[in-house]
């Protein structure tokens, strides 16, 4: 069974759960996805949660970048999600992994990583989501 890690904003839990269900219904095992950490325990829990998330990226077949629209920004991609996407790309470039990095949608040109995303699409380091491509 192929594994999927979903990255994106933890504040969009309805969307996270929708995408988790989508991948599971297609027969994939979702091993990690954004989950909120309670404010009271954030500093204590964050290091382990973050470390485990990155470890799961190293073992996944697909890194799905759930850059949903947020705060009026089309294809919002926060710094942490971009870092996780970079980590997936780096695994392929440096360690010869074959993680398929799939971006939900092209972000608006006011998203900070817009230029890098366009370059990486041209280099085929990442690809845009197309449901018909998901088997």
What secondary-structure arrangement, pairings included, does this model have?
Layout: E1 3-8, H1 13-25, E2 29-32, H2 42-58, E3 62-66, H3 79-95, E4 100-103, H4 114-122, E5 127-128
Parallel strand pairs: 1-2, 1-3, 3-4, 4-5
Q: Which blocks of ≥5 consecutive residues have pLDDT under 50? A: none
Helix content: 40-55%
**Assembly category:** single chain
User: What is the alpha-carbon Rg in Å?
Assistant: 14 Å
Strand order of the largest sheet: 2-1-3-4-5
Could you characterize the architecture of this molecule?
With 135 residues, the chain is of the alpha/beta class. It has one domain (3-8, 26-69, 78-133). The protein has 4 helices and 5 strands; from the N terminus they run βαβαβαβαβ. It has a 5-stranded parallel sheet, sandwiched between helices. Helix 1 links the parallel strand 1 and strand 2. The radius of gyration is 14 Å and the shape is globular. The protein starts with a strand and ends in a 7-residue tail after the last strand. The model has no long low-confidence stretch (mean pLDDT 96).
Task: Identify the notable features of this structure and list them briefly.
135 residues, alpha/beta, five-stranded parallel β-sheet, 5 strands, 41% helix, globular
In short:
41% of the residues lie in helices and 16% in strands. It is of the alpha/beta class.
């Amino acid at each position: 069974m192929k594994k999927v890690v979903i990255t994106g904003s933890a504040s969009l839990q309805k969307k996270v759960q929708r995408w988790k269900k989508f991948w599971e219904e297609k027969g994939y095992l979702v091993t990690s996805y954004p989950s909120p950490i309670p404010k009271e325990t954030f500093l204590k829990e964050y290091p382990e949660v973050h470390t485990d998330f990155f470890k799961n990226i190293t073992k996944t077949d697909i890194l799905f970048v759930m850059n949903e629209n947020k705060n009026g920004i089309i294809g919002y991609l926060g710094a942490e999600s971009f870092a996780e996407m970079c980590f997936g790309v780096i695994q392929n470039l440096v360690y010869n992994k074959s993680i398929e990095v799939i971006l939900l949608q092209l972000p608006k040109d006011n998203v900070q990583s817009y230029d890098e995303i366009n370059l990486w699409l041209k280099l085929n380091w990442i690809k845009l989501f197309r449901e018909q491509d998901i088997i």
